[in-house]
């Protein structure tokens, strides 16, 4: 599962991230900042992050959702 964070001081609420989400999973949320409708639907493509002209979007894999088989062994 992926997490989407918005750095509010940089976000100007232009809506480009919402428009470019291929899953149509972003919507205006609290105070019109973009928010995920269903965080589990995010596929981690980072189009919202890449299209944001103000570098206010950050998409990353939630470490809590990683299982042991997806973590490389260092032994």
Task: Describe the fold and architecture.
With 75 residues, the chain is α+β, with helices and mostly antiparallel strands. It has one domain (2-62): Alpha-Beta Plaits (2-Layer Sandwich). The chain contains 2 helices and 4 strands, in the order βαββαβ. The strands form 2 sheets. The protein has a two-stranded antiparallel sheet with strand order 1-4. It has a two-stranded antiparallel ribbon with strand order 2-3. The two termini are 26 Å apart. The mean pLDDT is 89.
Compact overview of the structure:
This protein is an alpha+beta fold and 75 residues long. 13% of the residues lie in helices and 21% in strands. It has a single domain, classed as Alpha-Beta Plaits (2-Layer Sandwich).
Secondary structure layout:
Elements: E1 2-6, H1 16-20, E2 26-28, E3 34-36, H2 47-51, E4 57-61
Antiparallel strand pairs: 1-4, 2-3
Structure class: alpha+beta
Oligomeric grouping of the chains: single chain
Share of helix, binned: 10-25%
Question: Spans with pLDDT under 50 lasting ≥5 residues?
Answer: none
Number of helices: 2
Biggest sheet layout? 2 strands, antiparallel
Strand order of the largest sheet: 1-4
Q: What does the overall shape look like? A: globular
- Stated plainly, the CATH topology is called Alpha-Beta Plaits
Q: What are the secondary-structure elements, in order, as H or E?
A: EHEEHE
- Level-2 CATH architecture: 2-Layer Sandwich
Distance between the termini: 26 Å
Number of strands: 4
Proportion in β-strands? 15-25%
Number of domains: 1
């Amino acid at each position: 599962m992926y997490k989407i964070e918005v750095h509010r001081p940089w976000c100007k609420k232009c809506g480009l991230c919402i428009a470019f989400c291929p899953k149509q999973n972003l919507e205006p949320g609290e105070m019109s900042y973009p928010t995920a409708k269903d965080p589990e639907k995010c596929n981690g493509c980072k189009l919202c992050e890449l299209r944001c002209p103000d570098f206010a979007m950050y998409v990353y894999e939630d470490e809590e959702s990683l299982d042991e088989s997806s973590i490389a062994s260092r032994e």
